[in-house]
Specification:
heterodimer; A: 106 residues; 4 helices; 61% helix; B: 186 residues; mainly alpha; 8 helices; 0% strand
């Protein structure tokens, strides 16, 4: 993917975004409710500099492990048990972020 | 059935992933996002009085069922849909990786790097442990990952998610083109 030699992952993420976008537009256009008749709420993402710094750090990790969080779980299910270590490490990373949160620039 | 047993093309799997967005919204008013599960696991197992982990995770437990479903999906794909076949990557990519010492493309992950034997080497440690740490730390710092920002965020037209996604990509390119060639040779 990051070598720009295969279109596959761009196709997957790109088409997922397009389908997601069309569905959200339809949900808003027709003011659809959930099956429990609740109004659908899409949480707003407020910009903070963590989007940039954290994004870069995640990008580095993404290219090393070859996985964002979702595929980590899928790889474990596929029988790559060593990925349990990667997942535990990712949980540790999240925990350390929680610990340092107040001291990091946002 | 035969069609299911081949690797699915991107124009099938991508839209299916995209459909998770309205499915979660319509069924439970939930926003698609996977990295949050890591936070919930922290909140459950080791909140350690850190304010970031003090919230009612039980309300978010759907997210843990969701990732359990991903594990199950990976299992089904490999066990019943013949998923254990050589990874489908560009031959040029395979060739240049071979020159760098990564030779095993028989499964989804190269065993030359991602195995318990490799875990004790410096290179394996960086790929498996350091990489994982960056994924967990970075996604939470960024407030989401490829699902929460790139798919859910961009699909709902939120510009901070576009910024985050661009940074994911920049980080990925820096690693692949500048840093990874050195790590792979360790």
């Amino acid at each position: 993917m990051f070598r720009l030699q295969a279109f596959h992952m761009y196709g997957i993420i790109g088409s997922a975004i397009v389908v997601g976008m069309i569905s959200i537009l339809l949900i808003k256009r027709f003011q659809l409710k959930t099956i429990n008749c609740e109004t659908i709420i899409i949480p707003a993402k407020k910009f903070h500099w963590g989007n940039v710094y954290g994004g870069l750090i995640f990008g580095l990790g993404w290219a090393v492990t070859g996985a964002c969080p979702g595929p980590l779980f899928a790889q474990m299910g596929s029988g790559y048990l060593v990925i349990i270590v990667t997942l535990l490490s990712a949980i540790a990373g999240t925990w350390v972020y929680g610990l340092l949160r107040d001291r990091l620039p946002h | 059935m035969e069609y299911l047993k081949q690797p699915w093309p991107w124009y099938i799997s991508g839209p299916l992933i995209g459909l998770i967005v309205p499915a979660l919204l319509l069924v439970g008013n939930k926003a698609f996002g996977i990295s949050s599960s890591l936070r919930h696991i922290c909140a459950i197992c080791l909140p350690a009085n850190i304010s970031f982990f003090k919230y009612d995770w039980k309300k978010e437990s759907w997210n843990l069922f969701f990732v359990a479903g991903i594990v199950l999906g990976g299992f089904i794909a490999v066990q019943f849909l013949n998923g254990q076949r050589p990874v489908n990557i560009n031959p040029h990519t395979a060739e240049s990786l071979k020159q760098q010492g990564v030779k095993d493309f028989s499964g989804l992950l190269p065993q030359d790097i991602f195995s318990f034997q490799q875990l004790l080497t410096l290179r394996g440690f960086i790929f498996i442990v350091v990489g994982g740490f960056f994924v967990g730390f970075g996604t939470r710092y960024a407030g989401g990952c490829t699902s929460g920002h790139s798919i859910m965020g961009i699909a709902s037209l939120q510009w901070p998610s576009l910024v985050a996604t661009c940074c994911f990509m920049i980080g990925g390119f820096i690693m692949t083109w500048i840093i990874l060639p050195y790590i792979i040779q360790l």
